[in-house]
Amino acid sequence: MKTSRLLQTKQSRWFILVTASAVAIFGLQVMNQMPVLIRSNTAIHTILELPSFAIALMVAALTWSVRHQEKRLRGLLIAAGFLSVSVLQSGHIMTYPGMPVLVDGYDGGMQASILLWLASGYIAAITLIAVAKVGTHKYRAIQSYYIFSGWFVVVLFLYYVAFSASDYLPLFFLEQKGLTVTKIALELVLSAMYLLAAVLFFQRRSEPEGGTNILWLSLCAWTQMLSELFLTQYRMADDQILLVGHLYKIVAYIFLYRAVFYGGVLRPYLTIERERSRLYALQSNLPDPVWLKNGQGRYLECNAAFEKLMGRPKSEIIGKRDEDLLDKKFATFYRNRDKIVMASDGKIVNEEMIPQVDGSIRYYETTKAPVKLKDGELVGIIGITHDITEKRESETELRLASRIFDSAIGFCITDAFQTI
User: Kind and range of the H or E element at 382?
Assistant: First the structure.
């Protein structure tokens, strides 16, 4: 993608907005000029965490549901990775100080909550880096079980550590003192991983399978990096900068959903629309009649030449069967030919008599072929026919002349006035 075109994209405008606002906020924070508008508490924290949790779950569900469209490994990685992220985020929300105690023996401290937060962040970063690296590689069915099983085991282990062994880990937060060096170091490493993912995605922007959704993924990783940097700045659990970090995370996940929605839903739809437009332009400009029927013999599409042949506008043809448009003997003949075509694996060419609007009969060479999906499911029949009446009559005359000239009987040809 050229630089001039890149600067005109929505992603570039969003990049400038989130980066400029982050720089301004960091500047105010460093100079201790950040106005205190609101203090964090359990309710506000939960409200800000729920959108990220919900979006992560929707991303996982969407990528899983469309995984068979192209069988891309990256879709499978996103589905498994962000399903794990959503499960860990739910644990982070429920273990935050002030939430009801759900596990016997758990005191509701910050240690387990921060551990689950960090774990979800690292899984998200690893997933994005993996997605950026695998590119357009396709997956085999067995790989889906390995990937989901692997993340399932990792999530179970992290929950075990959070509720049973978190006290054996270095402390992440100290009351009245704030974040520990360990927590800040882990956040900085996580930020670096997101930065790496953003760069990797940006480098793939010009690839055939790149483009719009890749830039959204790059912007997602970049915004997530800024979010993690904000989360190295708070000293108390109710610091306002903690809320800023969560807001940036929500924005990052919106970018992620936008990328997944474009790649899984919008892009295939636009591709179909483009192909439909090309097909319509092609068949509309063909001089020969072209039509498409479904498996039940109902017309789905036709061109102007077919409308002229049938003597009806397209609106009176679509959805109808031959029985609704033609005499019974012709309709039965065409339907039987269609059944032969549907049972075949390729095109069939044959001569057919087609009644004209004026009541005459003309001869046509008709080519029909079954239309099937990749999995072999029959969609319908496409047909094109060419008027060969004059050609057929000329061939008949030539055959007759050949017989006459080869005859041993003398003859002469005269006009109506007996002139030889």
Answer: strand 378-387
φ, ψ of residue 349 to 5 degrees: the values are: -115, 130
Beta-sheet strands, E only, within 243-347: 290-294, 299-302
Q: Helix, strand or coil for residue 384?
A: strand
Q: Which residues pair with 178 in a beta bridge?
A: 174
For 51-85, write each residue's pLDDT tens digit: 989 989 888 888 787 766 666 788 888 889 999 99
SS3 270: helix
**pLDDT of res. 376:** 76
Instruction: Please give the structure tokens belonging to residue 172.
Output: 């992440």
- For residue 107, give every residue at least 6 positions away whose Cβ sits within 8 Å of its Cβ, in sequence order, or none: 101
AA identity, residue 223: T
Q: Which residue from 212, 289, 196 is spatially nearest to 255, judged by alpha carbons?
A: 212
pTM over 0.90: no
Residue 231 DSSP label: T
Task: Tokens 């003398």: give the residue.
Answer: 410
Single-letter amino acid, residue 283: Q
Sheet holding 290-294, edge to edge: 299-302, 290-294, 378-387, 361-372, 348-355
Distance of alpha carbon 156 from alpha carbon 145, whole angstroms: 16
| Each residue's pLDDT tens digit, 378-419 | 888 989 999 888 887 776 667 666 666 666 566 665 655 566
The amino acid present at 363, given as its one-letter code, is: Y
* Residue 320's pLDDT band (cuts 50, 70, 90): very high
On whether the CB atoms of residues 61 and 78 are closer than 8 A, the answer is no
| DSSP 8-state secondary structure symbol assigned to residue 295 | T
* CA distance between the termini of the chain: 78
Amino acid at 253: Y
Cα–Cα distance measured from residue 34 to residue 221, given in angstroms and rounded to the nearest whole number: 25
Q: Which long-range contacts (CB under 8 A, 24 or more apart) does 331-334 make?
A: none
- The length of the chain in residues reads 420
**Whole-angstrom Cα distance, residue 63 to residue 260?**
7
